[in-house]
C-alpha cells in the first residue's frame, strides 16, 4: 500500500425530503448566489423546494450553466458575484453546475491577473468562497470532492482544477430527484461513476486489499442497480444506491494508497472538447481500447476484476482479463451507450493525431499509473477506438 | 436505505515514516499535552519519533492512561490541563488513550457541575479542546470518529460519550507500529474491528447494497490478513490493511443509511466492567449467543454474510445462517480468543442477572436494531454465553 493523506470535510445530508434542511447549513446573513443549469429544476419541483428552503436569505439567481461548464459563462457569474458582494454560493445541479461553482469559488478569491491562470497553470486553491450543493444528477461525485473540470469553447479546451479549499461545505443528496432524470443522463451517470472507479482500480496490484474491495463493491452495486434504474428511475432504493455509489466513486476514498490511471479521462476530455460528445460516453469509447492497448501492464487487475465483479471463474489470467474487458463493453451497451468513436461522428479521421498533438503541446508526455503513456500511445489508443 | 447525515473532518496521514509530519498539523504556539499509556511507546521507538516531531513546541507529558481509560486518572490530567493552560492535546496510543483524550477534550470546555455528567447524562459535545492522535494499536477506530468509552472503577461503570466536536483534527497511522504489538493485542484488534462491522451490518436487509458490500469488504480483508498479521506482524502490507480496516470499521461510513445493533457492545461492556476482560474478548463471548438468540430477526443478513464473506453456497437460509455463526466462532478461535465467559472466569454465576439489573437501572429497556431487546433478553443471552 502506498502512503496517503485523506481528509474530506464535506457534510452529506442524504435522503428523502432533505432539501428543506438547506437553510440550517448556510450562515445567517449570507448573501447567496443560487446557480443552476438549463431550467430542468423548474419542471421537477426542485427549484421550488430550494427557494422555499432559502426563504429569509438574500438570494441572487444565476442560471444557464451548460453541460461542460463554460469559462465565458462563468465569467459573467463572477462579475455579478463581485458586484453584489456574494458571500455564499449554492450549486443546484449535477457535476457541471457544481464544477462551475468550484471554479467561481476559486476565482472569486483569486488575486492574479486572470482566473484562466487557475486552469492553465493548475493552481491549487487553498481557500475558496464557501458553497454548498443540492445534487440533481448522480454521476461525477463533484458533490463530495474538491476537483472540477472547466471547458473553454473558444480554444476547445477542457482542463481540470482543484484544491483543499474547494470541498462543498455541505451537499444535499435526495434520491427522489432521480425519477425525473432523462434516460440518457441516467445511463451517462452510471457509466461515469463506473469509469471513475476503473480509473482508480484498473492499474496493478499493490496489496491494498481493502481499497480493491471497496472499488469492487461500487462496481458490483452499479451493475446491480443499473437495469433497475434504467427501467424505473422512481425505484427509490435503486436510486439511493445509484446516488451513493456515484458519490463514493469519486470522493477520494478508493484512490488512497493505490496507484491511479486517469488516462481514459485525459483522452476522453479531448473527444468532448472536439466533438461535444457526452463526457461519460467518451469514457466508454476510450476505456476498452485503453485496456486492450495496456493489457500486459493491467492484466492482473483485469483478471481480479473479471473474477470478483463479473464472476468469471475459469480460464487463464489472460483469458479472464480479456473476457472482463468484453463484459465491460457489454455493460456500456446494456446502458444504451455506444463504445466506438465512429458511432458518434463520421468526422473521426485525424482525431488520434490531434489528441496526440495536444498532449505534446501541454507537456503531457507520460500519463497513466506508470507515467509512461506517451502522446504516441494515446494516438494509437484513440485510433483503436474509432 | 434510511436517511442519513455524514461528516467526518479528521485528516488521516497514513504510511511509513509519517510521524515526523506531526509538527505541521499542530498550530504554532500551541501549548501541547502529550498523553500516552503504560510506556510501551518508550521501548518501540514511537516516543522518540513523537518527541522529535514536537521539537519547538512547549510540551507537557501525561502518561499512565490504562486500558479502559479511567475517570479518576483522567481527572488528574484535567487538573493539569487547566493549571497549565494547555491548548492542544496529542494522544499517542490505542483506543484507550484516544478515548481518554476525547473525554478530556469535552471536559476541558465543560461548564457544568462535574464532568461525570457528560457520561452520565450522555451530553453531546459540540466543541472540544482540539487534539490529534498518533495511533499505536489498530482496533477501535477511535482515531477517526467522535465517540469514546470511559470507565469508572469505583462504580464499575463503563459509559459512552461523543459529539461532533470530538473528531481528532488529524490522526497519524503508521503501520510500522504493528510489528511491536504483542500477539494478544493484535488478536484483540482484529476481533474488535470485526465485531464493530458486525454491529453495523448484522441486522436486517434494508436495500443498502453499497453499505453492505463495504461492510463485507472489511470483514473479508480482516479474515485475509488475520493469519498473516498473527504470524508476522512485521508484514507491512498485512499491517497496513489491518490498520486501515480497523479505521474504516468505525469511522461512521458503513453505518450510514442502515439500522445498527450495538447490543453486543452493551452487554460486552458489562463483562469488562465486572471482570476486567479485554473489550474485544467480551464481544467474542457475547456475539455468537446474541446471533443465536436473535436468529429469526437476523437470519437473512446472517445468510448473506455466510454466502458472501464465508462463501457458504449450499443449504437453506437457516442452514447457511447457522453455519455463518459457527464460522465466526471459529474465526475468533483462530485468533486464540475464547468465546465463553467460563473461559475467562469461574465466578460467572449471577452475571446475567447483574447485567439485566444494570440495564434496567439505566433505563436501557430496548436495545438492538429494533429497540426491542429487553433486559430479560440480555439476561438470557449472557447466560447462553457462560
UniProtKB/TrEMBL annotation, chains A, B:
Pfam family, one: Fe-ADH
CDD domains (alphabetical): BDH
Alcohol dehydrogenase iron-type/glycerol dehydrogenase GldA domain location: 9-175
Top-level taxon: Bacteria
Molecular function as annotated in GO: alcohol dehydrogenase (NADP+) activity; butanol dehydrogenase (NAD+) activity; metal ion binding; methylglyoxal reductase (NADPH) (acetol producing) activity
Family statement: Belongs to the iron-containing alcohol dehydrogenase family.
Protein name listed in UniProt: NADP-dependent alcohol dehydrogenase
Amino acid at each position: 500500500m502506498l502512503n496517503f493523506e485523506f481528509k474530506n470535510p464535506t457534510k452529506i445530508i442524504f435522503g428523502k425530503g432533505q432539501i428543506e434542511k438547506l437553510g440550517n447549513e448556510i450562515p445567517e446573513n449570507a448573501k447567496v448566489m443560487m446557480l443552476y443549469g438549463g431550467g430542468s429544476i423548474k419542471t421537477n419541483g426542485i427549484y421550488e423546494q430550494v427557494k422555499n428552503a432559502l426563504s429569509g436569505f438574500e438570494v441572487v439567481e444565476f442560471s444557464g450553466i451548460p453541460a461542460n461548464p463554460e469559462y465565458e459563462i462563468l465569467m459573467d457569474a463572477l462579475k455579478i458575484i463581485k458586484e453584489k458582494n456574494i458571500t455564499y454560493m449554492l450549486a443546484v445541479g449535477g457535476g457541471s453546475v457544481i464544477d462551475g461553482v468550484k471554479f467561481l469559488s476559486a476565482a472569486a478569491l483569486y488575486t492574479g491577473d486572470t482566473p484562466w491562470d487557475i486552469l492553465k497553470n493548475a493552481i491549487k486553491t487553498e481557500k475558496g468562497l464557501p458553497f454548498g450543493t443540492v445534487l440533481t444528477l448522480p454521476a461525477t461525485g463533484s458533490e463530495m470532492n474538491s476537483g472540477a473540470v472547466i471547458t473553454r469553447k473558444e480554444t476547445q479546451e477542457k482542463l481540470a482544477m482543484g484544491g483543499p479549499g474547494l470541498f462543498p461545505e455541505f451537499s444535499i443528496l435526495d434520491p427522489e430527484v432521480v425519477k425525473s432524470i432523462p434516460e440518457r443522463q441516467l445511463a451517462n451517470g452510471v457509466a461515469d461513476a463506473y469509469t471513475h472507479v476503473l480509473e482508480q482500480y484498473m492499474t496493478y496490484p499493490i496489496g491494498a486489499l481493502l481499497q480493491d474491495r471497496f472499488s469492487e463493491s461500487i462496481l458490483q452495486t452499479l451493475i446491480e442497480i443499473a437495469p433497475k434504474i434504467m427501467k424505473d428511475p422512481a425505484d427509490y432504493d435503486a436510486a439511493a444506491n445509484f446516488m451513493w455509489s456515484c458519490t463514493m466513486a469519486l470522493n477520494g476514498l478508493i484512490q488512497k494508497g493505490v496507484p491511479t490511471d486517469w488516462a481514459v479521462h485525459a483522452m476522453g476530455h479531448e473527444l468532448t472538447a472536439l466533438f461535444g460528445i457526452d463526457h461519460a460516453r467518451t469514457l466508454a469509447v476510450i476505456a476498452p481500447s485503453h485496456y486492450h492497448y495496456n493489457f500486459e501492464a493491467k492484466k492482473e487487475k483485469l483478471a481480479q476484476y473479471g473474477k470478483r465483479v463479473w464472476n468469471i471463474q475459469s480460464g487463464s489470467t489472460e483469458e479472464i482479463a480479456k473476457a472482463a474487458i468484453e463484459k465491460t463493453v457489454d455493460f456500456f451497451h446494456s446502458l444504451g451507450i455506444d463504445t466506438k468513436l465512429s458511432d458518434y461522428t463520421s468526422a473521426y479521421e485525424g482525431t488520434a493525431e490531434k489528441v496526440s498533438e495536444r498532449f505534446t503541446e501541454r507537456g503531457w508526455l507520460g500519463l497513466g499509473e506508470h507515467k509512461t503513456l506517451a502522446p504516441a500511445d494515446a494516438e494509437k489508443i484513440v485510433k483503436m477506438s474509432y
